[in-house]
Specification:
Length: about 280
C-alpha cells in the first residue's frame, strides 16, 4: 500500500516539508494583463508582492484545469501509488475543490479521495502535513480521514489587513467605502473557521494586533501555530510574535508568505496566525 498526497499551491507549506514527504503540489494561475504565471513556479512570492502595487492591471487568479489534476493523479499512479488523498483550499473560497472532484471521478489509474480542508494557507498546509506523515507511517486512507476531520474542527486562521486598497482594486470592496474606511484607519481582520470566512473591523494597526492576540487566547491551547503574512516587514512580524509570547507552543514556529493567489486580493503587509488547537 502506497498512499500519496496531492494539494494545491495555496497550502503555503515550506519546500522542505513538501520534498520530505513527496507531496505533489498543483499550482494555481496568476494573471496580470497578457502575462500568466504558475503560482510558485513562474513567479516567486517576493517578486509578486514587490511588483503588486505597480502592475498595470490588477492581478486575477484562476484554478487549474481538470486535465492538470488528472495528470497529477496519473503521475503518482505511475510512481506506484495505490491511493491518493487530495486536500485543497476551502470550496467557500475557490473553485479548486470542484475541479479536483471531477478529476478524481474521471481518473481510472488510481483511487483518489478528495478532501475539503475548509481552510486556507497553512491551516490547509497543516492538514496536508498531517496526512503526509500518516501516509508515511503506513496508515490507511480511512484512518487519515478520521484524523483530518478532527483537525479541521480545530483549525483557525485570523489575520489583519494593512490596507484596503487591494480589496478595492480587486473589486471585493466598493471604492467609496474603502476610501472612507481608510480615512478612519479601519483595519479589517479576516477569519476562517470550519469553511466559513468572516470579518471584523477595528481602528488602527495597534488595535488590530491586540485583537489578533485576543483571538489567539480565545481558541485555547495550541498544538501548532504559524505566523502567516503577505510580504510584511520583519519588524511587524517580530512585533506580533513578541506579543504572542508565552501563548505559542514550544518548538519551531513557521513564518510563511501567503500565496499570491490570496495576496492579490488582500494586498501586502497582512499579518496573522494559522493555528491548530490541541485535543482536549
Amino acid at each position: 500500500m502506497s498512499i500519496r498526497i496531492v494539494t494545491d499551491s495555496t497550502c503555503d507549506l515550506p519546500p522542505g516539508i513538501i520534498e520530505k514527504y513527496g507531496i505533489h503540489v498543483v499550482p494555481l494561475y496568476i494573471n496580470t494583463g497578457r502575462e500568466g504565471y504558475l503560482d510558485g513556479i513562474d513567479i516567486t512570492r517576493e517578486e509578486f508582492y514587490t511588483r503588486l502595487p505597480d502592475f498595470p492591471e490588477h492581478p486575477t487568479t484562476a484554478v487549474p484545469s481538470i486535465e492538470r489534476f488528472r495528470a497529477a493523479y496519473n503521475t503518482l499512479a505511475d510512481e506506484g501509488a495505490t491511493e491518493v488523498v487530495s486536500i485543497h483550499i476551502s470550496e467557500a473560497l475557490s473553485g479548486v475543490m470542484d475541479v479536483a472532484r471531477v478529476a478524481a471521478r474521471t481518473t481510472t489509474s488510481v483511487k483518489v479521495t478528495v478532501i475539503d480542508s475548509q481552510q486556507l494557507s497553512l491551516a490547509t498546509g497543516f492538514l496536508v502535513q498531517t496526512a503526509a506523515e500518516m501516509a508515511a507511517e503506513g496508515r490507511t486512507v480511512s484512518e487519515i480521514q478520521v484524523v483530518l476531520q478532527s483537525q479541521i474542527q480545530r483549525s483557525h486562521v485570523f489575520a489583519a489587513l494593512d490596507t484596503l486598497e487591494f480589496l478595492k482594486r480587486s473589486g471585493r470592496m466598493n471604492k467609496y467605502v474603502a476610501n472612507f474606511a481608510s480615512i478612519l484607519q479601519i483595519k479589517p481582520i479576516l477569519t476562517m473557521y470550519n469553511g466559513k470566512p468572516g470579518t471584523e473591523r477595528v481602528r488602527t494597526r495597534d488595535r488590530a494586533f491586540r485583537r489578533l492576540i485576543e483571538m489567539l487566547v480565545s481558541v485555547g491551547k495550541l498544538e501548532k501555530v504559524a505566523i502567516v503574512h503577505t510580504h510584511a516587514s520583519f519588524e511587524r512580524i517580530a512585533e506580533l510574535r513578541k506579543m504572542a509570547g508565552s501563548l505559542l507552543p514550544e518548538g519551531e514556529i513557521l513564518i510563511e508568505d501567503i500565496t499570491p493567489v490570496i495576496g492579490a486580493h488582500i494586498g501586502p503587509g497582512v499579518v496573522g496566525f494559522a493555528v491548530v488547537t490541541a485535543l482536549e
